[in-house]
Amino acid sequence: MTEKIVIIGNGMAPGRMLEELFEKAPGRFDVTIFNAEPRVNYDRIMLSPVLSGEKCYDDIVIHNDHWYATHGVTLHKGARVTEIDRQAKTVTSAKGITASYDKLVIATGSLPFIIPVPGHQLPGVLAYRDLADVEKMVEIAGAKGRAIVIGAGLLGLEAAYGLKRQGMEVTVIHLNPTIMDRQLDPPAAYLLEKALTERGIDIITKANTKQILGTDKVEGIELDDGRVITGDMVIMAVGIRPASSLAKDAGIAVNRGIVVDDGMMTSDPNVFSLGECAEHRGICYGLVAPLYEAARVLADRLIGGTSEYHGSVVNTKLKVTGINLFSAGDFAEAPDREEIVLRDASAGIYKRLVLKDNRIIGAVLYGETADGSWFFDLMKRGTDISQMRDTLIFGQSYQGGSPLDPMAAVAALPDDAEICGCNGVCKGKITTTITGKGLTSLDDVRAHTKASASCGSCTGLVEQLMALTLGDAYNPAAVTPMCTCTELGHDDVRRLIKAKTLKTIPAVMQELEWRTSCGCAKCRPALNYYLVCDWPDEYADDYQSRYINERVHANIQKDGTYSVVPRMWGGVTNAAELRAIADVVDKFEIPMVKVTGGQRIDLLGIEKEDLPAVWADLGKAGFISGQAYAKGLRTVKTCVGSDWCRFGTQDSTGFGIRVEKFMWGSWTPAKLKLAVSGCPRNCAEATCKDIGVICVDSGFEIHFAGAAGLDIKGTDVLGLVKTEDEALEHIVALTQMYREQGRYLERIYKWAKRIGHDEIRRQIMGDPEKRGAYYDRFVFSQTFAQVDPWSERVSGKDKHEFKPMATISYNQAAE
């Protein structure tokens, strides 16, 4: 018999608890969630990258609608609970929804503190706690102007950086003499303030807000000393308080937060509390790592275990691109403490360890934070460091007086050492998951453990663990530089192009610190593709950054001539088109005419200077470029389907033509070939294409990730849809997902293997919102992509490309 669990709140802590429950006791619980926000569970740690533009909402979703459906969870979105009836064991929402429970989990989180100064209720005064806050900030930031952030703590500075990235001028007001004074000592705060100031953020310390100015909306603030700062938005980032009023109204014991014991149980044995609203041993935690630890304990208790939560030691990292900062423990000065300090002014490095009785009780690292996890582990364990006192500040690699191989340092970490602070993932969890599930890529590890999936600061450690666990089987392709011009891999380049709003190749090379002045033949085509894909309405395609075939829109042959392939929609032609091709063959004395495997006609042996004239004659007959040279859609191969074939179940020819006319012109990471077969006999060979469709009586079976070149690989089934319209939407969305995530020259089957076939199915088949977003972005890009390059060149564009080089005699050259 299933037990009814009702959860009030749908944040990260109850989400982690449910993951543990479903893993350890699948099918045992009937779960209902009331979420005050009108959406699914998302990673609140990543709100700062969303605000700065480095990530979007889709990137930070933890559990989508498909996940809840798969696990039989009833999720009420936008349903704020107003009453808990402990006698009837029910909860009721503001919308009148009532659910009964056997066990209740209150995870209502926290509320932002708003300073009650005059003007605090004006439109444009915002908190910074959830996605709705971020959306409002981005909306106001669209008009640029100035943002004023009150509070220079962790959230305040992340908000300031994000709004600066949105193009606003930003001023931060802080009451105390140094910023982030709860997490940093004055020297580290000085370095951080300097770095933020260099990024264009104004910081005013020792400043108190007197009032917020404005009549109908925010116009600025006035400080106690009379200074006035004009602005269009005020962000309050001055603290939070547990959202405990619902529990208090129900008669549950509340102090500052909802009081819980070591099993996360409240004063009612059938009610538990989790997250920022809970108070354990007098402490309310606001960071995710301790909340995850408590979530694991509560999951174990709900299935009958005896786990206990004894509190947490926490650490802090700032999510500002390019700033490395780590802080943990107590670093205040006291007579019974000593400190070890390392400063390197030229490198911008500051490290300080606070010791008591030969044990680390506090650590502040700025500029170089690789040893943060090791120092943090020593602190949590209370390790006696007297034997390594002289070399401690230099980090784990220098213990024993000589440098230690980094791999050996990682190997020395205990299994319960925390690797990913954002998601509370320890070393043992990562290594056992790698071996247990046969994981071989960083993306796999992120997907299965969440380590390195949030801020990414632990990526290096995770990769070292992978190398340590897999040995020679480890292939760090994901971090291989895209070329010798840069240390960055393709994924990082793509991410930073969006994050830094880079819209030209020179801007990319300057901002990402390319080693060469203009790049090389390997990176320029890749950058050109990424910019075309990311900024279709703003970036001007740089044909000089393309390979020769894409530059001249024909395929070069070994003798220096070119081949031309006119587009024949779905492989269908007619007498007029064939006559036009025959006339061109005769007129230009084309030596070879070949039918291709993609049901097209290839004209081989054309001189470069004749290409525009050949295209002009073909254009008069209605032909456009077949783009047989392109890293893009080439052909959609079809069979005759139900119109002619006695076995056909659908109009495969008509659908193939529809798909090709809809998708032609789109650039992709590598060439893209499609096919539509009218029945399972598969005459169009759809099961070895990048994307294929098999028509069946009940609709359209979509396949993907096939190959029939150097690699021979059959497709995998994406899913079955009933109508042509649905099939088109799914195919287009899959293509756009590949366009946005694929690395340049990475065929779709390699991309699918890297991302995971199940993940692709989840996003395209199981998540209508995500699928629709991919579809819409593709349609938008097609507005700019569907321009025939042949007709452009016939009209004179890039005409110098097709002029023969002048022949200069030796005597002429000498003159």
Could you name the key traits of this structure?
about 800 residues, alpha/beta, about 20% strand, disordered C terminus
Detailed description of the structure:
The chain is of the alpha/beta class. A hairpin with a 5-residue loop joins strand 30 (555-556) and strand 31. The chain contains 27 helices and 40 strands. The longest helix has 18 residues, at 724-741. The chain has a five-stranded parallel sheet with strand order 5-2-1-9-21, covered by helices on one side. Strands 11-18-12-13-14 form a five-stranded parallel sheet.
The largest beta-sheet arranges its strands as: 5-2-1-9-21
Radius of gyration: 31 Å
Q: What's the end-to-end separation, in Å?
A: 99 Å
Major sheet details: 5 strands, parallel
What integer is the average pLDDT? 90
Count of DSSP helices?
27
**Strand fraction band?**
15-25%
Weakly predicted, low-confidence segments: 806-815
Outline the secondary-structure elements.
Elements: E1 3-8, H1 12-24, E2 29-34, E3 41-42, H2 47-52, H3 57-60, E4 61-63, H4 65-70, E5 74-76, E6 81-85, E7 90-93, E8 98-100, E9 103-106, E10 110-112, E11 125-126, H5 131-141, E12 146-150, H6 154-165, E13 169-173, H7 186-198, E14 201-204, E15 209-213, E16 220-223, E17 228-230, E18 233-236, E19 240-242, H8 245-249, E20 258-260, E21 271-273, E22 278-280, H9 288-302, E23 315-317, E24 325-329, E25 338-344, E26 349-356, E27 359-366, H10 372-381, H11 406-412, E28 418-420, E29 425-426, H12 427-437, H13 442-449, H14 459-470, H15 490-499, H16 505-511, H17 523-534, H18 548-552, E30 555-556, E31 562-564, H19 575-587, E32 592-595, E33 601-606, H20 611-620, E34 633-638, H21 652-663, E35 672-677, E36 691-696, E37 699-704, E38 707-708, E39 712-713, E40 716-721, H22 724-741, H23 748-755, H24 757-764, H25 768-785, H26 789-794, H27 810-814
Helix pairs in contact: 1-9, 11-14, 12-14, 15-17, 22-25
